[in-house]
Amino acid sequence: MESINVALESPTLSRMVTPMKPSDFLKNHWEKSKHLVLHGDVQRFYELPGISDVESLENVLAIYKNPVMVVGEAVIEETGGIADRFLVDVSEAREWYEKGAALEFDFSDMFLPQLRSWMGKLKNELQLPPGAGVKAIVYAAKNGGGFKAHFDAYTNFIFHLKGTKTWKLSENKNVVNPVQHYDLVEKPYIPEELSTYWQGEHPEDSLPEADIVNLVPGSFLYLPRGVWHSTSSSEATLSLNITFTHPVWAELLVAEIRSRLVKNEIWRELAVNINFLDEKSKQEVLHKLDTELKKISDNISSIKAEDILTRDSEDFDLYHITQAVFRQSLASKHMY
C-alpha cells in the first residue's frame, strides 16, 4: 500500500487502535499489510457511535431488515452436503442460530446510521479512493461457528463483542496482493486469473504455521487482505466487522483504456463467436481487429498517471454495488 500522510488528524482511527498511535498503525501494519491484535475493555468500542446497538444478538435481530446468511455444519446437514450456506428470512435466523449455524448480517450499516457516519470518516482518514467500498457485517454463532481456511481480497477491522473465538492467521506465501477471495477447500483448483500469479504449493488445511489468537470481548483485529485465516469457537460469539473493498491500479487503468476505446464505433460493435464463422469471415474479423489494435497503440501509450487517478471515484466492486442496491431495496419495503 502507498504511504499515508500520518500528519493528518485521525480521531476515529485513534479510538480504534488505542493505545497505539495511528501513525504507528499506518506505518507498521496498514502499509505493510501486517495483521494487528489489540486487547482491552469492550466498553471502549461503545464509544464509537452505533456499536452499542449491536451488543447482543437480540438487538441485531430487532434492527436488521434483510435476509441473513446462515453458514456451517447445520446447513450442510440440511442440504445433504450440497451447500454450506444460504440466505434465510431474518425471522428464521434465530432458529438456525439454535441449530448451530453461524449468522452473517451483511450490510448491517444500512440500519445503523451513526455507525455508517464514522465508517465514512474512517475511509477518509485512511485516505482511500472515493470508489473504495465500505460496509459493516455482524457475525453471530451459538457454538462451534467458524469459517475454514481462506483469504479475502478486502480489508477487515474486527471488533469482538462476545465470547471467545480462536483465529488462525498465517502469512500468504502463495499470493501477493490478491484481487479475489479464495477458499482452501477448493484446492487443488485455482481460478484461472488467480493462477497467473499463484506461487508454490497450497498450505495444509490446518494452517500449521499460523499465529493462533483468541479474541475475547474487547479484542480488536486488523486483518489485511490476503492473510490466510480460519476461525472456530465453542461458545456463543458476536463480532462486528468493518470491511473495505479497494480498487487496484489495474482497475483504474482498464477504466481509462475503456473510456478511450468506446469513442470508436468499431469497439462498440457486438463481439461474435468466431467458432461459428466460416474461414473467410473469421479472417475478416481477425484482420479488422488487428488493424484497429495498431491504430490505438499511440492512444493507449499516451496514458499518463494523472489520467488513471481521475478514475478513482468509480465503483469497481460489482458484487458490493449490486448487493447494496438489492439489500437497500429490501430494507425499503420494510419501511412502508
TrEMBL record:
Keywords recorded for this protein, A-Z: Iron, Metal-binding, Oxidoreductase
EC number in record: 1.14.11.47
UniProt cofactor(s): Fe(2+)
Domain JmjC: 101-261
Keyword check for Transcription regulation: no
GO MF annotations, alphabetized: oxidoreductase activity
PROSITE patterns in alphabetical order: JMJC
Segments forming a coiled coil: none
InterPro entries in alphabetical order: JmjC_dom, NO66-like
SUPFAM superfamilies recorded: Clavaminate synthase-like (SSF51197)
Name the UniProt record assigns to this protein: Cupin domain-containing protein
Native organism taxonomy: Bacteria, Bacillati, Bacillota, Bacilli, Bacillales
